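Dear colleagues,

As part of the handover before I leave the project, I'm documenting each prediction I ran so the next person doesn't have to rerun anything. This entry is a single chain, and its sequence is reproduced below.
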Amino acid sequence: MSAPADMLGNASSKSPLRKKAPPPPAQPFASFLGEQLGLHHDQRVEDSRSDQEGELRREGVYNFLTVPWMIEPMLVFGYVTCLDCFVNQFTFLPMRVVYSATKLLRGKRLTPMQSCELLRGFLIAFVSYLVLRIDMSLAYHSVRNQATIKLYVIFNMLEIFDKLCASFGQDILEALYASTLRKRRWCGGMACDFVIALVYVTVHTLVLFYHGVALTCAVNSNNNVLLTLLVSNNFVELKGNVFKKCEVPNLFQIACSDVVERFQLSIYLFFVLLQYVKEGGFGVASEGFQELARSLALISTAELVVDWVKHAFVIKFNHIHPAVYSRFTYILCSGMSPKLQKHAEQQPGKLSTECFHEGSGAVCARMGFVPIPLLCLVVRIVGHDVYPSLDMLHPSGWLLCLLIWLACCALKVLTSIALLGFACHRVEQRAKEEESANASDGGKLFLDGVERFSLYGKRIP
């Protein structure tokens, strides 16, 4: 009986649960003080760690500082693309609408593209007529005299409604264009689609109109109101994008959103400037114009700086290389023309209704830019603030309108040539870079089908 007891005792004594670790050696006070003074550091370990961590930190700092230089080419290209698509709506589109209407009156069959152009013309004409009936002074005072809702709250609400209308309205217009492919185009479903599109364009135009009115109220008020509006709007944008996980497709959506916001902001500033001229603004050297110029410069500068800071911190927190913006530019350039898409490695901007877009239209559709409501807003601005000041009873008034329209046509041709030339150069340059590298960067399909309002992950900017 003693042997099992001894075996049990020996086993229990050798159990790791009861074995105590040896106490750490006592550290002399002199050694502790030497470590605090940096006298006992291992130079080899310190050098290896400093080299690795220093390089990573340095690379992160330089990536952070180079973001504005990397993102601006993409934003400028997207801005000019939106300008080209927007100018096309009141230069070449009216001529196409007249040709399609003449062809329809002669009893000839229209192609789906001609039917789309005719529907766009009807939408623009009808909604512009409705918006021209709105009293600007009544809308201005209704926004400015709000006591329960502050101006910056109204501005943020209108921005949210604008994005919601753009995301849903693009599908509405694409559905209307797709209805032209049916055999019986002018009956039933097309009429219903046209009514839905008409309601949408009217609502979206009113949202943009009141957005411009809110900005006009902020500019015409004291500087504190404008500063409060800019701070609240920009910090909401930073909070919504910086402190969240962002992958490369999400970053592409954010960049597309920034392009559209910049272009809309330029239209709003044009809206504010015309309102100033209509209200009897003085010359360039006047104090009122200089104050207005400072306010507009403050708004534009804030938009640029916020975009740079936002993308810089998104790049930093998500460990994305800034060269990805060059990739975004290539993706947009490859969607400018079907010929470029054949030479590209993929077809990233291909939409289900791509046949209804020409040139920059497909790229703008992918960026989430809907030009028709914004054009109706411009028609309302020009119709109320510019047209009454022209003497249309004299031939000089019609001659001035013709010259302005011809200048816009020339601008459309120049922007189209410049965009197509830049897109061809960028696609060829990208192909040469990949041939020299003899390998792709692993991004052939990472943006395939991703648009501004497409759900990727759990986020839509």
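The two ends are 79 Å apart (CA to CA). The chain is about 75% helix and 0% strand.

All the best with the project,
I.
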